[in-house]
Amino acid sequence: MNNANQNIYKPYILRVVETKDETPDVRTLRLKFDNEEEGRAFTFKAGQFAEYSVFGEGECTFCIASSPTRPDFIECSFKLVGKVTAALRDCEVGAVIGFRGPYGNYFPLDMMKGKNLLFVGGGIGLAPLRSLFWNVLDTRADFKDVSILYGARTVSDLVYKDELKEWESRSDVKAVFTVDPGGETPDWTGKVGFVPAVLEQMAPSKENTIVITCGPPIMIKFTVQALEKMGFAPENIVTTLENRMKCGLGKCGRCNIGSVYVCKDGPVFTYDQIKKMPDEF
Amino acid sequence: MKKVDKNKLGELMQAVLDAGKELIAPVRQGDHTAYARIKKPGDAALDILLTRMPLKEFFLPKTECLLKYTNLEGGGVEVSDPDPLNQERVVFGARPCDASSLPIMDKVFTWDYNDSLYLARRDKTTIVSIACESPAASCRCESVGISPSAKDGSDVLLTPIGDAYTVDAVTEKGEKLVALWGSKLSDASDADAAKAAAFKPALPGHQTDTASLRGKLKAKFETPAWAEQTMKCVGCGACAYLCPTCHCFDIVDEKSGCGGERRRNWDACAFSTFTLHGSGHNPRAEQQHRYRQRVMHKFDYYPEKFGPVACVGCGRCLSACPVGMDIFEIIEKVTADE
Smallest Cβ distance to B116: which of A5, A81, A242? Predict the structure, then answer.
């Protein structure tokens, strides 16, 4: 626990070192600690989140989208939806960003070792999966088969397009990409169909397999239904939840689902745990 | 145990001021009442049973600075902590229900992360409570296991015994204050102590057995009774703002010139934007869901994590609600067998 005199709301100061437009309304910022010593001491695990801020505009909650195996920088990806994300979008290289974190729990990497991993992502929900995905690829020998199914509404809504190409070309990854019907372009070579339907076509084996999924609530709902139909046990389906947060520290009182605080007990939960929560998502 | 004559309370307050401490007491403010800083004992209105505003704003202010920032030339930002609280404070004349709210909030503000701003205020403040001689019809402390002479959260408790009060130092901080008062207090006899122990005014209002009902809440999460019982809630948030234990907050930035502040402001689960996602999705889309959250948080989620219920039965929410909602009545109705 922090010292009782230490201000838990005081952020680290990071600077934007690179920006990238993933889609027309999703941008990724690559950030570095202003104070190198703080940067070296900072550690996190895939699945954790943080509060990112533009001073004078406010704070916003996103996962850390980069991998702990690449500790030289932190990346976040966000969709332009409001005041703070608009301000973050205007941050060019050199701009100062406030950063509090890492907060919350993380993906159970130790439990995943020696197993087949199947990632199922939709839209900007790929961001938290991407942190774990690169972590897995950077320690590839610890895992058996690694597959990823990722989809978005349209081709232009796919995030991390360069990385998708890289994953597709790797022989140690099975990558399937899809766009919703009507979202394809003439030169699209991936699948056309909703993620849960494409998942059923893929017919993954449930044997010794952990599924990690994140995406819009409707996608997660039907993905989990498809997985259960294929015999996956709820405890082998892992997802990460998002709820509106302010503090990230279990105090401001808004991210709870029943007695579960997404900021402290989560954001990573197994489907088994989610089934026990009251229906208030 | 010590005692003090009822007409000598002013001397005790003066001793606090003379020691250079800040004095906070119940006061009248026009048509309203509140706890406020006072400069002379005569401003205290100790006859007020329950101030309109609870004590919490002296620990979790309505609005407060979390940090200051200054934009530097060349593109940097300098961030600094708000000015620290150095002033020792004494609250004189708190009610046991208000004092009981502090240990409840302590658990939230020390849960894995210590909230230094809240804790500094707690650390610097000594609470002197006065047991309630004439509880009101809206008082519900016994519904939540507290009594008009409860000690929890108080550093010193004054209990009426005829023309005097017994002075009970509950904590180490309380002992220090009693030592400061020194000869202004006299020794209480065994008979005085027995009188104080027997002090038990009757509560005129209906008390709800929340200890046995709250166990039923979880199973009643989906009952249609929530919609029926909360239909009239207008979502104004008055109940939360007047609640001694409601602690939910928002964090916003305020710019001024070439810098500004990041501030914490009270917020309330009654508001429709409280849980609204950036996508437009809202997990608590209807007012009944938001009122259910209020009840569940106080009587199910909080006790599950921390033990006691997050309600001290002060009854402010009953008195202040513009549409006459009664949280205890609602608990009785939603947990009733269908």
Answer: A5
